[in-house]
Request: fold
Amino acid sequence: MSETRDGGQPLFRPLTGRQAVEREAELPRAEFDASVRRSLELGLTAAASIRDRSISLFVRGGDPPAFAGINTFLKAPYLEDARRIGDYDVAFIGVPLDTGTTYRSGARFGPQAMRRISALYLTYSFEMGVDLAEAISMADLGDVFVTGDLEKSFDQITRAVAHVRGQGAFPVVLGGDHSIGFATVRGIAACIDGNVGIIHFDRHIDTEEVHLEARMHTCPWFSATQLPNVRPQNLVQVGIGGWQVRRPGIRNARTMGTTVLTVEEVVEDLGIERAAEIILETAWKGCRAVYLSFDIDCIDPAYAPGTGWPEPGGFTPREVSKLLRLIAREGLAGMEVVEVSPPYDVSDVTALMAVRVVADTLGALVVAGHLPGRARPAGEGLAERATGGL
Ligand SMILES: [Mn+2]
Reply:
């Protein structure tokens, strides 16, 4: 906007949307071009009548219709050979487990639903001015082989996350119910030579020792903060409140000394920017790395109804996006999105929001320069030793 009324100062600052439109021209497209070449090679050339010769015969890459092709998360290549995950910056890991639920189940279908609806997303964010496919290499590792036994499934998840992180890739875990939070943190913590903080978004406190005789989805943070390098004073619980926060968990949180922020406190009392500062200061204090555990039920059920324990009064999607952008600026060691329960979802809106949480976080990590960036290698079998050879 250079027009002025009197030839003096511009009347308006340039509009954010206009700036974003201009900035798109600066983004590379080398990876996209390579994807087109690859799709023409592996997927064969199109029929003679097709004028756009970047279209292939079989969908293998490029810019196909969103509804075509085999679903992976954000169209990342499916990595069949898990030994090669160290070749990538980011690994998507499905954990289809919901035997830790205590009311509405269905989160075992979360990874499927998130992969399917992620077909709607491009890898480019207009406002952030980033194209994930150009900036970082991503692979979909498929799902962890979970079992009917919760504890054995935890061992599988820990081993999977430690493998990915130990190979230097950034793990993005697609849950699954929240019981997996203990197992994922155990995998991350095994790879970090120092303390690990946790930023936990949720309407529920999830700090019970056991519930229904097992470490259910009401329990992950009690066990996680018993790990040698994970301390309750670095656990920040964001969005807790309402009529579903079980009192045994509150008693434990009081003893443990976790930091708890309510929705109103974040949005109205502190404001999102000040809240983000407090969250970061608490999680990072004395730590080498911070893990993000995002329960989709921290978002109001108006926007995210497809979940195990919907609790009215949660965050709006825009509030969450802003918080995530601020938090990711300091870097993360990995992340998970849990409690998406597709059988209770409406028009895939909950799964859609869960994908947005991942995309926003990855975009912010790229903008802040934390991705690409090789994870500090676990080295000398640190992960293997620390997980007790799980
Ligand atoms: Mn919850």
About this structure: The two ends are 60 Å apart (CA to CA). Residues 178, 202-204, 295, 297, 309, 339 surround manganese (II) ion (CB under 6 Å). The chain has two domains: 30-69, 73-386.
